[in-house]
User: What shape does this take?
Amino acid sequence: MKHKLGIIGYGTMGSWHAENVRDRIEDLDVALVYDINEEKTKKASADGFNTCNSAEELFASDVDLVLVATPNNFHKDYCIKAMRSGKNVISEKPACLTLEELDEVIAVSKECGKLFTVHQNRRWDVDYAIVKNILNQNLVGKPYQIYSRLFSNRNIPGDWRTLKESGGGFLYDWGVHMIDQVLCLVDRKPISVYAQLKKIYQPEVDDSVRININFEGGLSAHIIADSWTFINEARWHISGDDGTAIVNEWFKTEGKIIKANVKQVDWTQGCVYTSNGLSRSMWPRPQKEISELPLPVQNPEPRWEEFYENVLETIEGKAQAIVTHDQIRMSLKVILAGFESAEKDCVVKL
Assistant: This one.
């Protein structure tokens, strides 16, 4: 069954969706594009897409699926209008800027019987797939610390992403991906959040994010998204009661797993001596007591196309949405707790 996609917003992500749906999604045609900026509408036309002069014209068309790829503060209104016009909806992330907005959108989705979901494309990153396999295969035992880190040294693009009113900043931009990933990795309830949000070069919005999420059972996740760092740390670092795993870089498959063969420590083995004293704790484990395992790389690699394939199957009643309302809501709840925590410099209970 062929479906028709209408796109609202032909900026960086809207144009990316248009091109990739055209090239990679067999059962979906990009039927219509609208942008409030006339120059972007002309660009869409030059790129070979049919355009229209208003969102209302798009809503009145025969498209059955609408992608909202506007600045974040416009998501709620466009999503609601699209669903009330009989369209299914994909929103770019974050879905909304407040829980009240999101709950209104979800209520309209249920009222109209139309799909509402969010494009969480980073669930198909190869590095994330490796971490899922590490945890699912119990390769480091029971995890107690997960570090998820991404670094850039370019700061934030100088458009609406630098404006508070538009929902700009790195927590809404990249933190939303990393929080979604961690929440999907961990089958435990998040119970509290502590965050530090810095404004290094942006006067209105955060461009350096540190956010810690504590889960039931003692597991903690530490998320860093920093737009002004020139020396990176490992993309992922997972500590478990049987060993440690690292994935070195975003979107790559380099790293390793070190597993303990012997858990009982022999404190008579030796010491590390320095000019300032000695330490038995820092004496390295003998090689016979540990083993190195390869990363469980997914083969074939994850396919981003699965997102749209799932959307179309959900519209046809053949599947359930991969990105659910509950997941979207919890992710936003953690983000908002992060803003509150940073403002008050305190731990926020969920």
